[in-house]
Design goal:
Elements: H1 3-50, H2 55-73, H3 79-87, H4 95-101, H5 115-118, H6 132-148, H7 150-158, H8 161-171, H9 174-188, H10 192-200, H11 203-212, H12 218-235, H13 242-251, H14 253-262, H15 271-287
């Protein structure tokens, strides 16, 4: 082969390599765009139903959003998670706003009906109240958003989320109460503002009342025990904070000491073993209480 032929062959090989790299970049770009469309479509579809007037439609939207959050958390890489986080800076795609304006909205009073409404001049908008299952779904979606993105936690604080959830804990049934305790932990993780609101709203007292009341269903009392273990182990991890003294006053020295010691469990366990250990320790917390 002559030098000229060799030079031509080398040039052709370089062009092929460049074409291959360009094709790879194009494929990556198209994949990112496709994933972005999938994320925005999933959010828009779920949020559209979550804002509906009827509870069954809102529940359908919340199930869709919850499925999306779970798939995002279990995705093999961070691409979907990063797109979700980016989407929450876009007002039309903000999940937290829709939750607190609809399923978790605290109605202050009944709507005022005027003659214009009665005679059809100005039709009144009627929205069905949220069911127990709808509120529980909304709380799961709230929990997922806060665990996936800290700015969701900050946005929830603007809607006084901790106060809203404590009202749900005190006024709703077991279906909502257990989920509510999980969502409260997710709200307070690495969030001083929500921790302060929890203290100002006497959150620990409300949880302690449920824990000590033997008329409350056992699984809710156990859930309260788990909540206290997570609260002391992950939210208020430092010793000798005011919340520890408050717990001693509310639950007694024996129970408070057990919570403090047991909250240090399982850091080296896998998730399944850690959950089992949490449940065992929660039962010990409940058994250490005096009858209410």
């Amino acid at each position: 082969m002559s030098r000229k032929e060799a030079a031509v062959e080398d040039a052709g090989g370089g062009e092929g390599s460049s074409r291959s790299e360009g094709g790879g970049e194009l494929a990556e770009t198209l994949a990112r765009r496709r994933l972005y469309r999938e994320v925005t479509l999933a959010l828009r579809t779920g949020l559209r139903d979550a804002k509906a007037e009827f509870s069954f439609l809102r529940a359908r939207g919340l199930r869709s959003l919850l499925g999306f959050l779970r798939s995002t958390a279990s995705a093999p890489d961070d691409s979907k998670l990063l797109l979700f986080r980016h989407s929450q800076s876009i007002p039309d795609l903000q999940v937290i706003t829709v939750l607190f304006q609809n399923s978790l909205h605290q109605a202050k009073e009944d709507p005022v009906v005027t003659l214009d409404h009665i005679f059809g001049v100005e039709p009144i908008k009627i929205t069905s109240p949220p069911t127990d299952s709808e509120i529980a779904l909304a709380l799961r979606v709230l929990e997922g958003c806060c665990l996936l993105y800290s700015r969701c936690t900050a946005l929830a604080h603007k809607y006084k989320a901790v106060k809203v959830l404590l009202n749900i804990l005190a006024s709703r049934g077991p279906t909502e109460q257990g989920v509510c305790l999980d969502a409260l932990i997710s709200l307070m993780l690495d969030s001083p503002s929500n921790q302060i609101e929890f203290e100002e709203c006497s959150g620990l007292e409300k949880v302690a009342e449920l824990l000590k009341d033997e008329r409350v269903e056992e699984h809710i009392r156990l859930k309260c025990g788990e909540f206290l273990l997570l609260l002391i182990g992950h939210v208020y991890a430092k010793e000798n904070t005011p919340i520890h003294e408050q717990m001693r006053n509310l639950l007694g020295e024996q129970c408070a000491s057990l919570v403090w010691a047991a909250s240090r469990f399982g850091s080296t366990l896998d998730p399944e073993q850690r959950q089992m250990a949490l449940q065992i320790q929660a039962r010990r917390v409940v058994e250490s209480l005096e009858p209410y």
